[in-house]
Amino acid sequence: MPQGLIRSAPSAARRSSRSAWAAALVAAAGVVTAAFASALPQPDVVRVRHGDDPAWAEPGYDDHDWEQMSWRRVDPQGRVLWVRARVALPADFDADATPVAVHVSALAAYEVYWNGVHIGGSGKPGATAAEEIPGRLDTSHWVPPHLLRPENVLALRMSSFQLRRTLTAPFQLFSIEAYGAPQRRIFVNRIPMLIAAGALMLGAAYFAAMFVSDRKDRASLLLSLLALAVLAQLVAESARFVSYPYPLHILRLETILTAAVASGVLLTLHVTDRYAPTRRRTLLLAAIAMMALVTLLVPGFDGKTALVIVSALVVAIVAAAFGIRAKRRGAASTAAGAAAVLALFSIDPARFVDQTYYIAATAFLLFLFAQQVVELRRAQATRAAAELRSTRCSRTR
């Protein structure tokens, strides 16, 4: 590092002050972004037509006979189609003050047109899988100020032939906001998840070390693996921060679901070991059966993942209830912790898998970690007392 930088390094107080200012700026940016987004009309109801004709991008084209629907219901899978939306800008809108962009998140290749002018896209749409070039999932397309009018037509040409499975919601974002606004929102939302990832890594490493030092410590092994499973799910979820080619989205969703199943099985094993060891096999089979039914019958990966987690939590509460009846230490608090995570799911199921679960799961795991540390210390104290008694007995002989 240059000497000048070393001399000007801020003190701890100055670093803290700068961190506070940075946090304030992030919050302010979020407020400004939200205000800007609310100032612009967002496309909700759009017009859709299957087929392909370049004339459908033109603002003057008559689309009155096209099918109308929410953009969230648009499904380009296995076809090529066009989407048109009318955008009326406020009379006092200043196009030079803030850059306007069309933000799209779709499992498709697409082209974006504003008033008939091609302003961007992702990949290359095609009428067949051979003609299509897959695009990236999340894209932003700047609208040149000279194209902005009081009345505008936004058109998308889309196709999706590269997915291994049919998804229920291939169109995930369609908005007109300040350039970069969705990326800023994602970054801010991911900060708590990054903190959670650090806690999970530390917990996994600590209890792995505990197991290595004592191979009979099954509880520490299960907790280490459980932390790793939740961490794997969090990493797969956070991969959304990178705009990857849309065919990879299926792999990401499958990874999230697989990690949820693994964490569900590990949680069941840990709680039954501690509170209902005589019913371990029955409760484990019940958890596996519930998760299998959810995976097979529930549509949509988010729904599958959320209900897999719910299934494991329900079984954990049942196992803890057996522990409460047997007056086992910590059973009531474990049941309360699992119930609290379930309550968060019931309050906001839409955001549970994407955000809430990772914070709640990390807090619940920290509680389980603390429980295990107390048990380890208690076991160590018991062994030390036994060794002391043995030493005293040997001396008296």
What does this structure look like?
This protein is α+β, with helices and mostly antiparallel strands and 397 residues long. It folds into 2 domains: 141 residues, Jelly Rolls (Sandwich); 199 residues. Helix content is 56%, strand content 15%. The chain has 9 helices and 9 strands. The N terminus is likely disordered.
Please outline what is shown here.
Helix 4 (218-238) runs antiparallel to helix 5 and helix 7 (301-325) runs antiparallel to helix 8 (331-347). The protein is an alpha+beta fold. The chain is 56% helix and 15% strand.
List keywords for this structure.
397 residues; alpha+beta; Jelly Rolls; 2 domains; six-stranded antiparallel β-sheet; three-stranded antiparallel β-sheet; 15% strand; elongated
The class by helix and strand makeup works out as: alpha+beta
Strand order of the largest sheet: 2-1-3-8-5-6
**Biggest β-sheet: count, sense, barrel?**
6 strands, antiparallel
The proportion of residues in beta strands is 15-25%
Residue stretches low in confidence (pLDDT < 50, at least 5 long) are 1-38
Q: Tally of extended strands?
A: 9
- Span between termini: 68 Å
Q: Give the rounded overall mean pLDDT.
A: 84
How would you spell out the order of helices and strands?
Answer: HHEEEEEEEEEHHHHHHH
- Residues in helices, as a percent range: 55-70%
How is the secondary structure organized here?
Layout: H1 3-7, H2 12-39, E1 45-50, E2 67-70, E3 80-88, E4 100-106, E5 109-114, E6 117-122, E7 138-142, E8 151-159, E9 171-178, H3 181-213, H4 218-238, H5 248-275, H6 280-297, H7 301-325, H8 331-347, H9 349-396
Antiparallel strand pairs: 1-2, 1-3, 3-8, 4-7, 4-9, 5-6, 5-8
